[in-house]
Amino acid sequence: MSSQASFLKHSPAEKRRVLEAHRAGRADWLTVAANNGISRSMAYRIANSGRVDDLPRGGARAGSVKVTQEVKDTLESYLNDNCTYTMET
Q: What is the value of pTM for the model shown?
């Protein structure tokens, strides 16, 4: 058994079927969700957000990045000007 919990991922096509049924005003849109193996709470989440694709997970947030691209470009230009620079702490 893996150390991380495995979650059942629903395909965008399954989510799209639920969203289209909801947007069409069908009274049985929750039945469409159940037939596609999507829980009631997930069906409501899809209907409220209107999104069928998963959002990207992880990565660095802009507020916590300490070295921006501008700083990297400046350091690279310093090294290109004089390659004998060394980093000291």
A: 0.58
